[in-house]
Structures are given as structure tokens and as C-alpha cells.
Amino acid sequence: MFISVCAFSIMDLIVKWSEHYPIGQVLFFRGFCGMIPILFLIPKERFIDFYKTKRSLLHFKRCFAGLIAIVAIFIALRKLPLATVVSITFAAPIFTTILSIFFLNEKVGIYRWMAVIVGFIGIIIISEPGYSSLNLYYMYPIIFCLGLSYVAIAIRQLSSTEPVWLIGLFFSISILIMSFFSLFTQGWTLPSLKDLFLLSMVGILGGLANLWLTQSYKLSEVSLVTPLKYLALVFAIIFGYLFWDEIPTIKTLIGATLVIISSIIIFRREIYLKGPVSTSRHE
After folding, report:
1. Which string of DSSP letters, residue by residue, matches 123-138?
2. Alpha-carbon distance values, 93 to 8, 62, 83, 177, 181 (Å)
3. pLDDT tops 60 at residue 276
4. Which of 19, 148, 176, 200 has most Cβ atoms within 10 angstroms of its Cβ?
5. What pLDDT is stored for residue 218 in this prediction?
6. What digits encode the pLDDT tens for the residues 164-181?
């Protein structure tokens, strides 16, 4: 889990740094290079017919929600302070809890509803709702959370019959396809060798981070490894200060604390009720 958090944090750092490159071009590297770690997981007997699945529609919905989420988080990382974006993304389990009522017919008890309310209060404190251009950018990490929440639900449903590598491979391919459309609308910039390496790391780190995250939950108890993911906020504060002189406000820290408390309550209740825990970042 710790290595996964580090990989995601460095990926976020590179995405924010890459603001002089079109988002579509960065997405290309996320999709193309993100497939490299996954290719090593495909069984030899599936190399020819790796694409075969009986759940095409659910794969499509998962990829569509994932694409919305990844575009939203890339925009947010470029327009908002790093710590602010990371703080709001911790709210994904809150939205997953709500969506699970409609898509999984789950019953949500009083404790999780209280956690949802606390989490939303935290989001409001961080984003300070208003009508300025900066306030509107706070919608992007929230859109990311919504997209990621459906992704978590779709993966719950897919994982009963589909291998992890196939779910990840389809998503990387969908990112790759979408990135080509930006070639005609945004145009791409020829990167230097150093930039080419850094852009490639967006995909490699993103692909590895998701695999490491999944593996950590297989090898350890969820209650032990989940708290480590909140180290991402520490990394975001450090990176934001070192590279962009960003200092999180008191409101951001207070709101982040409420969101983290909310998500921890949700995790603990799901573990107590023996339900599937929303853990993956998957972007």
C-alpha cells in the first residue's frame, strides 16, 4: 500500500507539472504506458483471445465512468493546489456509499449516513461554494469522486467473473482511444527526451500503482493497509510546497480531516458488516 501511495503521489506531481502539454497527450501516455505492467499479467493461453468477455456492456460503463474521472482529476490537478485536490478525492467512498444503494441494492445504516453527512460538510469547507472561476474548478475533483464511485461499483460486479488484468487493460485501451481524438482538437507538442521520460512515467506509475493497490488488499487486512493511503495528503502538502510554494489553508486542513474521518467510518462499518470495501483509486 505504501508503495502504491508513493506511485500515485508522484504521478499526480507529474500530471500537475505537465500543464504545458495538452491533457489529451498526457492521457495518451497514461493509456499506452499504463498497459505495459498489465501485459505481464496476461496468461499465455489468453494472448490471442485476451479481449473475449461476456460482460461487454459493464466493461463499457466502467471505462466510460473511468474516463470521466481521469479527465476531471487531470484538470483539477492543474488548476487547484495539490493538497486540496487530494483532500477532496478522499471523499470517493462517500459517493460510493450513496450509489451502492441504487446499483447494488445495499442498505445503508445510520452510522454510514452520519459519515456521509460529515464528509459532505468537509467538502463544503474545502471548496467554499461560490461563483468565482476558482470555485468552479472545485467541481472537477467532485466529478472525479462520482466517476470513481461508479468505477468501484462496476469493478465489484466485474471481479466476480473477470480477471483484474482484463479490467485494467480495457480501461487503458479506452484511455488510448480517447487520447487520439485530442490530436485533432488540441494538437500535441513534441516533448524533449526528459519530458518524454516523465510523461511515460505517468502511465507506468499509474498502472503499477493500481496493481500494487489491489495486491496489498489481497495480502493484508483492509483495516491495516487502508490508513496508509492517507499519507497521500502528506506527500501532496510536501510536493505542493516544494515545487509550487503551495501552503494548505486552515479550512483545507479542517475539511480534509472531516473527509478522512468520514471515509474511515465508512471503511470500518463495511468491514464490520462484512461488505465489499471501496478501496481502489483506479485511474
Report:
1. HHHHH---SSHHHHHT
2. 18, 17, 18, 28, 31
3. no
4. 148
5. 59
6. 889 889 999 999 999 988
